[in-house]
Specification:
- 16% of the residues lie in helices and 37% in strands.
- It is built from five helices and 22 strands.
- Strands 5, 6, 7, 8, 9, 10, 11 and 12 form an eight-stranded antiparallel β-sheet that branches. Strands 13-22-21-18-19 form a five-stranded mixed β-sheet. The protein has a four-stranded antiparallel β-sheet with strand order 1-2-3-4, with helices on one face.
Length: 435
Amino acid sequence: MKRNKIKELSISLSLVLGLLLSGCSNTEPSTDASTNSSTDSSTTKTSINDKNEVTDQEISDAIKIEGLTELTVNSHNVNSISSSEYGSQYTIQDTVNVTYTASDITGILPQTVSKDYEFYYNNETNKWEMLSNAATSCEVDSSVLAGSSWKCENLDTDSRKQLFGSDILSDEEGTVYLRFLKTIGPFAFNMNNENNTENERFFTSVGTNGKMTWVGSNDSIEKSFSIQNGSVTDSGDITMEITSGNNKLSLSLGKDVIAITEQEYDTALGLEVDDDKVYIESLTKFDVTTTSIENSEWKTEMGYKEGNKSPELTWSTVDGATKYAILMIDDTTASNVFHWFDIVETTHIDEGMFTDSTKDYFGPYPPETHEYDVYVVALADEPQEKTFKLDTSGGDINARLTDLNTKKDGSVGNVIAYGHIEANYTPVDDYYGYR
């Protein structure tokens, strides 16, 4: 009897012990893990492993730049921090490298800028905040200044003297006109320049020259000028130091000096403006499309040494036009080298339709990347001038339009409208000087 009770007690203890052990094994992953998960969740704000990088939308919302046209996020560099110069509430730093493009207020001189933006995660507000930035590179397409014209009507007496010395009477009213030469030196930016700020970068330039003319009530004075220094802001505002002899003056393009057309410039300076002279800015423009541009560049086979195939072009019929002149000009060179000229009656040209370098198409062969402009010019009749020598200095587009503006019967008014398309061409190899 006593032995049975001991046996029953033994079995009961075994059952209890089994239940306890079973209960522990079931509870450990559910209860304890749940508690740990809850604890981890409350500290995710300070854990770099649990907090993702700043989002593209947050970056876009934080970067406010006037004139910004395109923004690309290149990379992230996320790090945990215990404190920063901005306060101990910031627990994570994300250095984001972005590239953006923006144009200045004149609508020209587009710039491409790469910057490192420092975002910090605020542990108190649970938000990313952009607290600093620094430019890592900057490029401005200064080549568009070549041949451009500008005027400045509101220079005070001291500023006029800085440009023209004592040649202008202090009380004389007039306007200053600037004309950049066809050759424009590039802008070189130093990202370590001590004058740089978060929003402004300084550059130097060699070979950016032009002429300036004071047109007063009684006389005009002409002097040459050069640009050696200047700066550009995030939104693309350009300030240049105009130097003439020992005189210097900083002027802001688009504010102090306003861009004008070539026709306005010629008229203001009393230059020849005949009825047969054509200014492209006064013409109606129509759309031209092409399938011969890939990745924003002319196809390789367009090049003289890579097939010498003319591009494909398509446009719509222009009222009053019976002919269309096709022109290609190397816009990067000061001499505007001529690469394509022909006159057609259709509104479509197949790729490779012109391949004869002796008479109609002499493809690009630049030493480096150059920009090539293709113009389709709507003509009322056969032009008197029908031959332009290829692979030579072609002059600017206005000069070529003026050549085409005379009909075969000698009357003027032949140019009706134009279309334009442009792209860079990068050579496979350096063919410059191959002949």
